[in-house]
Amino acid sequence: MATLEASQAVQLDQHFEINFQSETHRLYKQKLEEVSKLQDSCSNAIARQRKKLKDTVDEMNAIDGIQESIKGRPNVFFEMESFLPKKNGLYLSLVLGNVNVTLLNKHSKFAYKDEYEKFKLVLTVLLLFFSFTCRFVFSYRALDALFNFLLVWYYCTLTIRESILISNGSRIKGWWVFHHYVFCFLSGVMLTWPEGILYQMFRNQFLTYCLYQSFVQFLQYYYQSGCLYRLRALGESHNMDLTVEGFQSWMWRGLTFLLPFLFFGHFWQLYNGLTLFRMAQLPECKEWQVFMCGCSYLVLFMGNFSTTLGVVYHKYIHNQDKSKSL
């Protein structure tokens, strides 16, 4: 009897053990299936995130392209507007009235710009020889007056032609246009300055400055025209960009050697202004032209110096940011 009970107990234990193992195996398979599902879920989530990341990169590239396109839109609109009739500005309206000065094809625009550049070159050379003659060959007030009249006519003509070119798409920094008005005014005042002791005191300094200025303008025209030609060939310059008497950002490559000549000319303008202000304090000074010419030279110095320095500083900061990004 005892043996039978022991046998039944062993069988019962074995039955419980088998049931426990079956339950454990079932739980193991259940957990394994859950792990497999979690693995599949994680794999699918990673695949989805990778696809979204790829789509995000594509979207960012598309956004960059759109931003570049937006940046280029003002230039496109500017180009389109240059072929449409435009209302004349105040200066052109005063000089020419309501005459339409918009040239309707690229050939006409470029031909007018080219003629403007040739006009500047011819007059610059003429003024160079004229100032040399007045300074070192002949010393006649009538010849000086003719020289100043030529300066007035030259700068008046430049302002009119530049206004027409701006209406046809040329991009000229505002100061380089305005400083021609100041030069025109200065030359007009010099033309009315009567013969006298003070005029003779300033005459040689003025003519020497004009000689140097014409020389620098000739250098600028010669090198700027070559630089513009190369930039246009590379597609980095607008067809209607002009040579100027100052320094602009597009001149940074290859024309920085002109900066010492320009800054020397700017400080010569300051020297002329200070000389005239000292002359205006002399007891024998009765002419109003002395003070007005001094003010004009001071305005020219401040405008030219600050504009040129601003271009140099802006380019320096741009190069610093570019080197940091690399």
UniProtKB/TrEMBL annotation:
Protein name, as recorded: Transmembrane protein 120Aa
InterPro entries: TMEM120A/B
PANTHER family: ION CHANNEL TACAN, TRANSMEMBRANE PROTEIN INDUCED BY TUMOR NECROSIS FACTOR ALPHA
Annotated transmembrane regions: 119-140, 176-194, 250-268, 288-313
Assigned GO CC terms: endoplasmic reticulum; nuclear inner membrane; plasma membrane
Membrane topology field: Multi-pass membrane protein
Domain of life of the source: Eukaryota
